[in-house]
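User: My collaborator sent over this chain with a note saying "see what the structure looks like." That's all I know about it. Can you take a look?
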Amino acid sequence: MDLQDVRKNAREQMKGYCRVCPICDGRACAGEVPGMGGLGTAASFKDNVMALAEYKFNMRLVHGVTEPDTSVQILGRTMKIPVLAAPIGGVSFNMGGQISEEAYVTGVLEGCQVHGTLGCTGDGVPPFISETGFSAITRLGGEGIPFIKPWEDKELFEKMDKAGASGASIIGMDIDAAGLITLKKMGRPVSPKPIAKLAEIIKRCPAGFLVKGIMTPDDAKRARDAGAAGIVISNHGGRVLDHTPGTARVLTDVAAAVKGDMAVLADGGVRTGTDVLKMLALGADAVMIGRPVSVAAVGGRKDGVVAYLDQVKEELIQAMVLTGTARADAVGKDILFRK
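Assistant: Without extra context I'll predict from the sequence alone. Here is the result:
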């Protein structure tokens, strides 16, 4: 499937919710939440993209790397590419509602499955957002990561049990959703979790637990100490707190605090295979991609996601060859240019 056609179709399907800009950097959609924009001035969204763009590569060609290995071992699995689809839900109020939640979720998960990696499913209000994700993961034999928002106990544990029943080997919490204004407007309380509560949640979880929304070394250590299998360094795509730094600015310090103890993933502003390689060089074991995968799924369902990930993989391989990087699980920071 041609990506230009996918993007053209998505632009029509998402009219009023996402402009499908040539460069997805948060400038045109500032303040558009609900929608696909960033909160307030969109400073956090914009800095995700700018922070990554500030890193440049050292191009090296006197080496023998011609067919780099893009696979990584993470969270007890082998991923053929170090890229997962980030958890995004709410097609009706974030993406225009021209396709169903089921069609969207299925497209994301099946597209990722073709590439030997995992898609994540979202949570929210109304309940069919999470239910659709659980059902789709069940149909695919557990191939997906269901994310649950930091609800109060009753709803949280009910959804966690359903997530476990889907067969998923990993369950996530986007703890950064504690600031989502869309949920506040709906009267549905979400909140931060102190370490004792997080430990209780993780102990009750029937699968490995992934905490998304970590932006500081101390929070990374708390998630580790609470028993999490991994973290996602993320500012929720700039949708919960204005004026946070781009994730690439904090990645190295956060990753160093827990490297070797747990899986370290990162998202925020990742658009291309070169962005993926930069994140790996800065300390991530793998990355998550949000908005571009959503655009691909709305514009082309499974085929759109496959086409987008095809492009990302090709760009990643090219960047690995041109920096002399043989393996995605052993990316040195020395591939990045320093003045």
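A starting point for your reply to your collaborator: The mean pLDDT is 96.
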